[in-house]
Amino acid sequence: MQYGSSGNTLNNFISNGSYSFCNPAFASLAGYSSLALLKMLGMSAYTIIQRFRTGSFITPEDDIYKKIINQLGLSHGNMVGTKSDLVERSRENHLNDLENIVPFVLAGLFYIGTRPKFDCALWHFRIFLLSRLLHTIAYQVPLPQPTRTISWLLGYSSIISMTIPVLRSIQL
């Protein structure tokens, strides 16, 4: 594709081509990416909830929250400066989301540029989202290994599988 000096070709490609909601593969990517991002944001909120449930605040400036918890009669002892296993588990889960969901969104955007078959793209997106949901359940319940490892591997494989056609379609 050649890009003229006016940029009209690029604008037409973006608005009428692969990166348009008229393209069902792009619309699916947008939907599944949005769900994955909301799931990731949910883990952030869940971590905050766990901090309040356990009274586990790491930094001294968060002492104000401990005082509020004590005033409400919800004290969990003097846990400022300590770590809670529940908080750490949710934090690690959230970090794992960051390490996987952001690459999924980026790889998915590049993948859409290869104009994949809709069914193939849809399965990549579904497998990834389901793997992240299962990973979270396996991490938070916790379920016995290798449940979490297999769920992570499925999502990771989906990202790699989307990246291969991208690399094949470009000339480095």
Q: Secondary-structure map with pairings?
A:
Elements: H1 8-16, H2 24-54, H3 63-71, H4 85-112, H5 118-140, H6 147-169
Concise structural overview:
By secondary structure, the protein is mainly alpha-helical. It has helices spanning 8-16, 24-54, 63-71, 85-112, 118-140, 147-169. The chain has one domain: Up-down Bundle (Four Helix Bundle (Hemerythrin (Met), subunit A)), CATH 1.20.120.550.
Share of helix, binned = over 70%
List how many beta strands DSSP finds: 0
What is the count of structural domains?
A: 1
Structure annotation, total helices: 6
CATH class label = Mainly Alpha
Rg value: 21 Å
Protein name: Microsomal glutathione S-transferase 1
Pfam families: MAPEG (PF01124)
Catalytic activity: RX + glutathione = an S-substituted glutathione + a halide anion + H(+)
Membrane topology: Multi-pass membrane protein
